[in-house]
Design a protein that fits this description.
By secondary structure, the chain is mainly alpha-helical. It contains eight helices and four strands. The strands form two sheets. It has a two-stranded antiparallel ribbon. The chain has a two-stranded parallel ribbon with strand order 3-4. The two termini are about 30 Å apart.
């Protein structure tokens, strides 16, 4: 059921937001010539997929978890995109493709072995990763792998249609305010 919502909302979102997406892409292109960023991430059943985002860091930044990146590598435009969460919008393509859901645990990098182990032990990889979820609305990042995996497991165990819409709604409120 959520796959139908994922596809429908993402498709509709891409259509409605297309002027904004084109504007953000254009600004990113002018700033650094490469507005989109693709990175391998660990998905459902630990299958690797390419995550798409708007670029927020300089082109030569090493591919590591965000909390491990030197803040000087983040561009001014990138700071704006991150603060407003607009850098996440291209992930709607990942949702349409089926690599992600709108709601689920955030996909990690394949070199985040501690988080992968914690998630594997809790069955987190049985579901599609998502753009938002309980950890995101609670402000929990990948800096604390055990806590994050625990929250992801809690979210999965309480997965229902009400929570699906609740996480989306809370995320939209955070973006707006």
């Amino acid at each position: 059921m959520t796959r139908l919502f994922d596809f429908s909302f993402s498709f509709l979102g891409l259509i409605i937001l297309s002027p904004l997406l084109i504007l953000l892409w254009t600004i990113g292109f002018i700033e650094n010539g490469s507005p989109l960023f693709r990175q391998e991430r660990v998905g459902c059943n630990q299958k690797i997929f390419l995550l798409v985002k708007f670029r927020t860091m300089k082109k030569n930044t090493k591919s590591v978890a965000t909390h491990l990146v030197n803040q000087s590598m983040i561009t001014k435009y990138g700071n704006f995109l991150r603060r407003t969460k607009l850098d996440e919008l291209p992930q709607l393509l990942n949702v349409i493709k089926g690599d992600m859901s709108l709601v689920g645990p955030r996909p990690c990098l394949s070199n985040q072995t501690e988080l992968i182990n914690e998630r594997e032990n809790r069955g987190v990889f049985k579901v599609r990763p998502g753009i938002t979820g309980l950890a995101q609305i609670s402000g929990i990042t990948m800096e604390k792998p055990e806590l994050l995996a625990n929250i992801d497991q809690k979210m999965i165990n309480k997965s229902n249609l009400y929570n699906y819409f609740y996480y989306i709604f809370k995320t939209l409120l955070k973006m707006i305010f």
